[in-house]
Amino acid sequence: MKRFSWNRDEQIIVLYYYLIKGARGFESDHLVQELAKLIPRHSAASIAMKIGNYTYLSTDKEGGLEHVSRLDEEIWQYFSQNIEELKVEANRLLS
């Protein structure tokens, strides 16, 4: 399967599902499955790993996947401090 780089919009949607909707970093999580349908160029496994990156960056969580990208960090640092803006931006992208 071809690997695709994550773009900003996709990352915002995944972060929204993680922080607001409660998605967890498991392929079997129903929200991860929902995301795989919304972002079809990334598999459920890839989405679960991206959530693992955000879990690692979170100060509230333990564990996660430590190999984060610069974009992961930028998205996390900005939107984790601007939750309302995350909601607005994610809803715009999802509409």
TrEMBL record:
It comes from the Archaea. The lineage of its organism: Archaea, Methanobacteriati, Methanobacteriota, Stenosarchaea group, Methanomicrobia. This is Uncharacterized protein. It comes from Methanosarcina mazei (Methanosarcina frisia).
